[in-house]
Amino acid sequence: MNQPATPVGRAPLRHLVAAAAVLLNLVTAAHAEQTFAFDRAPGKLPKTVIPLSYAIELTPDLASLALPGVETIEVEVRAPTTQLTLNAVNTNFGEVSIDDGAQRAQMTSDAAAQTATLTFAKPLAAGRHTLRIAFTAEINKFGAGLFVVDYPAKTGTKRLLSSKLEPADARRIFPCWDEPAFKASFALTVVIPRNLLAVGNMPVTSEEPVAGNLKKVVFAPTPKMSSYLFVLTVGELERASIDVDGVTIGVVTTEGKSGQGRFALDSAAKLLAHYNDYFGVKYPLPKLDLIAVPGGFGGAMENWGGITFFESRLLFDPATNAETARRGIFGIIAHEMAHMWFGDLVTMAWWDNLWLNEGFASWMATKASQQYYPQWQSWLNGYGGKQFALSLDARRTSHPIQQPIADHSEAVTAFDAITYNKGQALIRMLENYLGEAQFRAGIRQYMAAHAYSNSTTADLWQALESAGGKAITGVAASFTEQDGVPLVVAETDCDGTAQRLTLRQERFVIAPLGAAAAELPVRNWQIPVAIGPIDGKPFDEILLQGSAVIPAGACGDAIKVNLSDIGYFRVEYGPKNRGALLSAFPRMQVDDRLNIITDSWALVQAGRAEPSSYLALLDGLDPGDHRTVWDQVISTFAALNRLSRGHEERPLIQAYARAKLRPVLHRLGWNGSGAADDDNALLRASLISTLGDLGDEAVVAEAKRRFAAFLLDPDALPNSLRDAVTHVVGITADRAAYDGLLALARKSTVTNERLRYYFATASARDPELARATLALTLTSELPDTIVPGIISTVASSGEQPQLAWDFVQAHFDALLAKQGPNFRDQFVPNFMTNFTDEAHAAELAAFAPSQSTGGGRVMVARALESIAISGGLVVRLLPAVEDWIRAHRP
Predict the structure, then answer these.
(1) Domain spanning 491-509+523-587: which CATH class is it, in words?
(2) CATH topology of 237-341 equal to that of 491-509+523-587?
(3) Which of 136, 326, 458, 510 has the most beta carbons within 10 angstroms of its beta carbon?
(4) What element of type H or E holds 604?
(5) What's the mean pLDDT when you consider all of the chain?
(6) Which residues are designated catalytic?
(7) DSSP per position, 804-816
(8) How far apart, in whole angstroms, are the C-alpha atoms of residue 401 and residue 545?
(9) What 3-state DSSP class applies to 885?
(10) What is the second-level CATH architecture of the domain 46-235?
(11) Greatest mean pLDDT among 24-28, 43-47, 285-289, 466-470
């Protein structure tokens, strides 16, 4: 029953005491739970000393790239100790003292562990202490820690600094407890030239001039956060901003480019209001900057209050961007802003739960895109990410979403399609299983319970179960705690006029030729499966835990498993139901047609179906089918084209692919009609690029003609075709065309234009031109962030993998110095998947630099399996595909 409210200020003393006691108990309980979660968190650093707050002053030298600094760290000593250990890399220590000089510390470092241990003569008593460290770190030339970017501007080459710290590179800027469980507040001060702008996590509270044409910039302290979310960008920058619901949203760019941030600014304003409502917790910082960085790294990073983006991922220039570029810009902003809650406000306790950050942000970004721009059909058009995860997860070297991580090198390997795309697919499946409203209620409960602290996967399941009233821990655990892809085998049979559907699950495996799938552990999942007729009311969703038999309409009805393609599993149909489905194929919804096609190709890759079954399915496709359907076909043709390089089957495979794709381009036309950002614009560009790769003479000639007209009049070539046309010109370039593309790249100060022309030159198939491109990677001309991509493009689009591999080996030390440890641990293994033979697999296995860390060994193992799988597909698929094409010439 309701009771009348007591006026504020007149409450009896006993009520106030009781209320205060309740509040104290709640705070104490929350603190106890957070402390317990902290103590359980994995990690490498001891938890005997905990940082509470950092006050950091940095004086970066943009000329020498030295980074002198001093920091004062408030710490809590949990038990008396003479030592404390924190992280540091390439750092020279000055004086280290505690409690206003009461003791000075001796320092020893462990380069391999990236730690420094401070030893005091007398034990530090339990309680709070103040640690002061003077140090000099390094500004890097590669995108980790604080790094330098030299970029072209209209007045010449300019230089800026920015940071990228995930997963474990804050230690490259200042000594710290660089693990996500060690949350603390960060108060930053920087001393920089007066003409530069500095951007950090929080607003600037003061600026004052100091000697030598410098100024001291002081930022407000951050809330408690993990060290990898620290950010600093310094340069000749400008900001455009708006205020939304008490928060200042800004887009920060190099000079003259803030106008290109208008779409990003408007998008961030929409998303802030949307996320405030969805999460039930308002964005807690006073400002949120989106920072465009013209180099250093290729994606975006969710630093709290100061998200950094590679410039071309954030800015939209109508003079050079296709209208469809807005899709990617909105998507990446939506992803990073989702992290402001899922990752920054609530952070995984250790990198084994990275998927909590990335899987959720990927799901939220697509969900937001679908809400604000339904015409983009973001779930449907984003199918490729899920397919990539399914293909990797079918391998022996896959890993659970929630996986053990030993150290920082292994943490880097966790940023993959399993973490992002399988995580996203799982969350979508769980939301569909629980219900949208119930799922959101669970997320709000989770946010409220773990704000400013760390969490685990189990915490999320508990919140969702509590709010949703439906057991999901077993469902979710079967997908997060074990690797692999479920295969649902489905067949119909008749009992008189009634039809039954039998379902059973297996493990879906794509293995090297001759490898026995039986050697892999048996898996069993709890799978939410949506089933129904393709043009009628769906049956109830079932939870498949082993096998099941269900009524399935009238005998002969076409019954689809995984309706709307929301489930994370493959489906193999028996001959009766498959025949009925193929007969009804044109009447299916596009997501169901796409699901049939992708699963059919996957079954061929796994050796569970012959290539003829997939190729026969292609014969029935309408040239007017949806973009996503034809994009899947294009990806298959691209795979066959790559596998057949150097083999006698290639000319026939290319001719067949050209014959299948030409009618689709003919239907669309080169000029097209309709909106500039519709799916046809994207499909048209994809077709032109692919037909150029396949040697279509008519497409190559038309691309060259249009590019020549563009050189005379830029308006002659629509933005939507520029990437595709330039790519075709690049792969067919002679020396004159190559030099012309290079001149265009050197002339432009627009990042997406420069990338377009540089990557076109890297696609040239003339070996001498390939050598010229590779030589550029050793100079300062190319942004360092695109160097790995340029080398890979020489190998793939340029079809010169051996030339590029010889170059990498000959110049490995120079490339490693420019690119940093990820070049050793990740680039080399990934690059070697351009090959399909045992000899190159052996070369990779013997390449010592990539075997020197745990993360490198993980990546090498994955690459070796990929090479072996590709080699097996060459042997098994190419002859069968050739036979089918000869018998069924289009």
Answers:
(1) mainly beta
(2) no
(3) 510
(4) helix 590-605
(5) 93
(6) 336
(7) HHHHHHHTHHHHH
(8) 20
(9) helix
(10) Sandwich (2.60)
(11) 285-289
